[in-house]
Amino acid sequence: MIVQFFSRGKGKGAGPIDYLLGRDRKREAARLLRGNPTATEALIDGSPHAKKYTSGCLSFEESDITAEQKQALMDDFEKCLFVGLEANQYDCLWVEHRDKGRLELNFVIPNVELTTGKRLQPYYHAADTKRVDAWRTIQNITYGFSDPDDPAKRQAFTKAKDL
Fold it and tell me: Which regions of the chain does DSSP assign to beta strands (E)?
């Protein structure tokens, strides 16, 4: 499993929701796992902040994992990101995708703390990378997922994304 955070976060709430679930909310190979897309979109649209949401995914080489494992991973990931916050203080939408030949658990988090309305930044790369990487390593060991840091998976050459 790998954890990836996307660089997006500006614009209307319809953007990430439409990508995850489709404009008509019937995207093929997408399934809502947790959260309310309408509420998430409204929170993003109502945010006065420049970066309105944080999004990313947990991507698996495994073709499928159990529903219980998915729920446990989502719960643990939220505990890792929202240290010191209760579940009523943040919103997190989870959508499963299978359209790229692998399992992805995508998340969208409005950058607003729900009880105060103040800005919430669930992930800051410079400060949070080591913690999230440690969480990923523990989950890969616990569940026996494919490890992206395995030396056998190293590539001799990598090609630039902008070619």
Answer: 2-5, 30-34, 53-60, 93-97, 103-110
